[in-house]
Design brief:
This is Pectate lyase. It is found in: Secreted. Residues 1-19 form the signal peptide. It is an enzyme of class 4 (lyase). With 241 residues, this protein is mostly beta strands. 7% of the residues lie in helices and 50% in strands. It has an 18-stranded mixed beta sheet that branches. The radius of gyration is 17 Å and the shape is globular. It starts with a helix and ends in a 7-residue tail after the last strand. Mean pLDDT is 92; it is low at 1-15.
Amino acid sequence: MRFQFATIVGMALSGLAAGQTLNIPTRVGSIVSLSAPSVISGSKDMGNREYDRGRACDTDADTGSASAVFILENGATLSNVIIGKNQLEGVHCKGSCTLRNVWFRDVCEDAISALGNGNVLIEGGGAQEAKDKVVQHNGRGTVTIRGFTVVNAGKLYRGCGDCTNNGGPRNVVIQNVRAKGVSELVGINSNFGDTANVSGSCGSSVKKVCQEYKGVQKGQGSSSKVSTTANCKGQTTLPSC
């Protein structure tokens, strides 16, 4: 397992060194274009096959779980899979879930949406070309992102700014992440008691590690940045990888 993890980290680093693209594992077989979301219960290892929905990313609207490539039921684990670029939504977690070595070629609306109550673990893998965010956290609980690589993104993580029944607390733990070309690594709603803790991470061209916001209820205006930093724990800058 140590050798496997070291190999994954080495691949991520070599991708960053080569330029602003991910070194995604070689796809096994042909791309599978799903006509509907694949619903995962229990544990599923996809063997580095690649899946999409056969539709180009032509909108940045939230089109819901019907547009997702995978929907993870509460407690599900999805491993070793590539999400192709022809999709509107990537992976939706309905509660607690685990993603291991899940790669995103080109993020459309969001790569990963944590929608329910429960803890989410994202370990290994990576995403690139996210105009807005990679991980959207709408539910409650802790999202841990460990050993992940993000390249060219607005944010790696964002607690929802204007959901229906919005609130908290939501927590995010960032460990050993590698980032390049990211505006904000994490965004949290400090007025809802959200917290972020960043450790062991590195990168370049990251404008801000942690940004606090004022979250709002849907239909009551827009979420706005605040100047406080008390809920941002750990690293405030990232050393070069």
